[in-house]
Amino acid sequence: MITNMEKIKTLLKEKGIKPTFQRLKILEYLSNNLNNHPTVEMVYEKLLNDIPTLSLTTVYNTLNNFLEKRLVFGVTITGTEVRYDFNTDYHHHFLCKKCGQIIDIDLKCAYAEGEKSIISGHRIDEIHGYFKGICKACSKNVGKKPKSRSSS
Amino acid sequence: MITNMEKIKTLLKEKGIKPTFQRLKILEYLSNNLNNHPTVEMVYEKLLNDIPTLSLTTVYNTLNNFLEKRLVFGVTITGTEVRYDFNTDYHHHFLCKKCGQIIDIDLKCAYAEGEKSIISGHRIDEIHGYFKGICKACSKNVGKKPKSRSSS
DNA sequence: TTCTACCTTGTAATGATTGTAATATTAGAA
DNA sequence: TTCTAATATTACAATCATTACAAGGTAGAA
């Protein structure tokens, strides 16, 4: 874990971001939660244990800073809040409208290769592929006899 | 235009939505503004001329109703508000981060055919392809000697 | 140490959206 | 037509994510 923290520190320095304690912890949290796609609130609540003086504003500022420097990727698939993704490799996202889970989708669209492409003359800097529906797990419980389901 | 209004009315009835005056006008507005991708506020402000008693809540209710019945498509590319698209044919969107314009992108990803597909076992109901960058028009003015630019 | 630049913090403000309760309108029964 | 029940519309309050702002804290340079 100490080695990991050193990697995080290097990442910040490479992007010209001063590696303060708050920033290190926030980026570390994101790097350890690749599948969560955490919200600002999730980052804040969790880190409050480590940093009791942490301010929500700091989390917002820091994450916006990371976004600008392209250290993290913002996922707005829910439409209500930004989810943060430490994995900036090209990939898409799926939102289950039943359980709310956000799942990584690895598929290649021809247009997305290189990520810095041109479409219809427009320069593309970011590609967001959002798929919405019912996830595999939730699909299994649909249309079956409801034995002990809490919701209708 | 009267013929168009009749088409709008039929559309609503087909979806089981009672074609009230407000609903007709809202859907008509969207059908006449395919390239705008209007916000709730835009719909409201514009229709206030025709319907001075119109309530913002009604616009929200109506558009949510249309969304549920899949009469319109919600575009959340800006991350700050929902834009409404009367064109529910499969297509993607591009957001220019300079001028804020939202432009339709017509390209086919193999995975999107049929729109009701399965990816990694998840049932896909909606596909949103969001591309962000600098549009063709804005690209031309970047890197050139700034002659009379208002912003820095 | 003192100064300066940048970070962090708390609180207030904003803006989009939803909740709620009262009023209005409509469709169908009598 | 008149009454009634269901549904729509409206106005206003409340909520939630996010940003603005001002004040206090910290680290490194001089």
Contiguous uncertain segments of 5+ residues of chain A: 145-152
Q: Tell me the name of the CATH class of the largest domain in chain A.
A: Mainly Alpha
Strand order of the largest sheet of chain A: 4-3-6-5
Average pLDDT score of chain A: 89
- The multimeric state of the shown protein is homodimer
Shape of chain A: globular
Counting helices, strands and paired strands, the structural category of chain A is alpha+beta
Q: What string, H for helix and E for strand, traces the elements of chain A in order?
A: HHHHEEEEEEH
Largest interface: A-B, 33 and 33 residues
* CATH superfamily caption of the largest domain in chain A: Winged helix-like DNA-binding domain superfamily/Winged helix DNA-binding domain
Determine the number of helices of chain A (DSSP H or I, runs of at least 4 residues).
5
Total strand segments of chain A: 6
Percent of residues in helices of chain A: 25-40%
CATH architecture of the largest domain in chain A: Orthogonal Bundle
In short:
By secondary structure, chain A is an alpha+beta fold.
Give a structural overview.
The structure is a homodimer of 152-residue chains. With 152 residues, the first copy, chain A, is of the alpha+beta class. In chain A, helix 1 (2-14) packs across helix 2. The first copy, chain A, contains 5 helices and 6 strands. Chain A folds into 2 domains: 1-75, Arc Repressor Mutant, subunit A (Orthogonal Bundle); 89-139, Dna Ligase, domain 1 (2-Layer Sandwich), CATH 3.30.1490. The interface between A and B is medium-sized, with 33 and 33 residues. The structure holds a DNA duplex (30 and 30 nucleotides).
